[in-house]
């Protein structure tokens, strides 16, 4: 029996494997590519000097004092990484009900920004304005009688954003999901002469279990009372996420972010399709840790899965990825 003939009858001479047959054909037909320009590196800052303190739940990630962070960011810039995102681990005695430390001009996060900007002027600095690193209850906003109050939080977030811009932040990334924050921050930045400071909205931030290791990293997990379901989006809701993002676009967001990443690739795609704005995914702490932990046990090829997941964000329409793998991935890209 002529088996070739049989298969051709089924395929009608269309054979997908022709384009996959050799390395050169595969390179010719490759639709998406990951480059170092796609990588944004989130880092954790602690007070003090000379500190590089490994985070147990995030193998390979450390909290760094400002001086060490400056060195690390220099390395990131040398690798070609375009931007970093900073998160502070604030001393416990400085945390309070309203997160008042967020309004101190030379607080830890602003000190880090100023130092990094001075030492490494050619890397972008993205700062978050959510209040969770600063509050004694670990919530992203001001807590009054069991409720995270929206408008009062927005007011504070705007003032914090202006201080962050004063310190040298290039992009403000509000992650606290209060209503109206993007427009309010835009007006606040414009009124204080920061027309060139951009806003990357954590447009669709889902209420997720994947944030666990991050909360250990900035020591909020023991503090958090209740959950964040009254302001983050339910993982069940895609259309609601799009409506939320639409408001951020209307209010003046320059860039949009989807968080977490891998379990929300449909949202990345829908957001990019709907608005066409630069769109980023945050491959969050729990996603990183899953890969690291399995790799450390020898159960998966961690490096391969790191590169695969990052590439898949590109396929899903993302223009870049906030990832704790940034340095590792950048080094790998430089070698290949
Ligand atoms: C809160 C915030 C979170 C992350 C960064 N800022 C989520 C949270 O703690 O609820 C998560 C980042 C990560 O998991 O890597 N504003």
TrEMBL record:
One of its GO terms (biological process) is protoporphyrinogen IX biosynthetic process. GO terms for molecular function: porphobilinogen synthase activity; zinc ion binding. Keywords: Heme biosynthesis, Lyase, Porphyrin biosynthesis. CDD domains: ALAD_PBGS_aspartate_rich. It catalyses: 2 5-aminolevulinate = porphobilinogen + 2 H2O + H(+). The keyword Protein biosynthesis does not apply. SUPFAM superfamilies: Aldolase. Pathway: Porphyrin-containing compound metabolism; protoporphyrin-IX biosynthesis; coproporphyrinogen-III from 5-aminolevulinate: step 1/4. The active site is at 205 (schiff-base intermediate with substrate), 259 (schiff-base intermediate with substrate). The keyword NADP does not apply. One of its GO terms (cellular component) is cytosol. Coiled coil: none annotated. Its EC number is 4.2.1.24. It is an enzyme of class 4 (lyase). PANTHER family: DELTA-AMINOLEVULINIC ACID DEHYDRATASE (PTHR11458). Homooctamer. Belongs to the ALAD family. This is Delta-aminolevulinic acid dehydratase. It comes from Rhizobium deserti. The gene is hemB.
């Amino acid at each position: 029996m002529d088996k070739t003939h049989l298969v051709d009858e089924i395929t009608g001479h269309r054979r997908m494997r022709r384009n996959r047959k050799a390395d050169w054909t595969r390179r010719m037909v490759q639709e998406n590519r990951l480059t170092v320009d796609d990588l944004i590196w989130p880092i954790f800052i602690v007070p003090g000097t000379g500190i590089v303190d490994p985070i147990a739940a995030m193998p390979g990630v450390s909290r760094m004092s400002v001086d060490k962070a400056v060195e690390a960011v220099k390395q990131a810039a040398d690798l070609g990484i375009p931007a970093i995102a900073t998160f502070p681990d604030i001393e416990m005695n400085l945390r309070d009900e309203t997160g008042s430390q967020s309004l101190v001009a030379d607080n830890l996060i602003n000190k880090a920004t100023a130092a990094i900007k001075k030492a490494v002027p050619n890397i972008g600095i993205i700062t978050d304005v959510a209040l969770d690193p600063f509050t004694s209850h670990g919530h992203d906003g001001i807590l009054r009688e069991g409720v995270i109050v929206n408008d009062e939080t927005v007011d504070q977030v705007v003032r914090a954003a202006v201080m962050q811009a004063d310190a040298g932040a290039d992009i403000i990334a509000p992650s606290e999901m209060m209503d109206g924050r993007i427009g309010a921050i835009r007006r606040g930045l414009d009124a204080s002469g920061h027309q060139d400071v951009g806003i990357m909205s954590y447009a669709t931030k889902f209420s997720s279990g994947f944030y666990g290791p991050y909360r250990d990293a900035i020591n909020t997990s023991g503090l958090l009372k209740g959950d964040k379901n009254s302001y983050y989006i339910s993982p069940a809701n895609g259309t609601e996420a799009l409506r939320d993002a639409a408001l951020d676009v209307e209010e003046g967001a320059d860039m949009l972010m989807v968080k977490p990443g891998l379990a929300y690739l449909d949202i990345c795609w829908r957001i990019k399709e709907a608005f066409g704005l630069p769109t980023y995914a945050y491959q969050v702490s729990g996603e990183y840790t899953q890969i690291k932990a399995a790799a450390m046990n020898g159960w998966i090829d961690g490096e391969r899965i790191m590169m695969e997941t990052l590439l898949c964000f590109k396929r899903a329409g993302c223009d870049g990825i906030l990832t704790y793998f940034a340095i590792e991935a950048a080094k790998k890209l430089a070698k290949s």
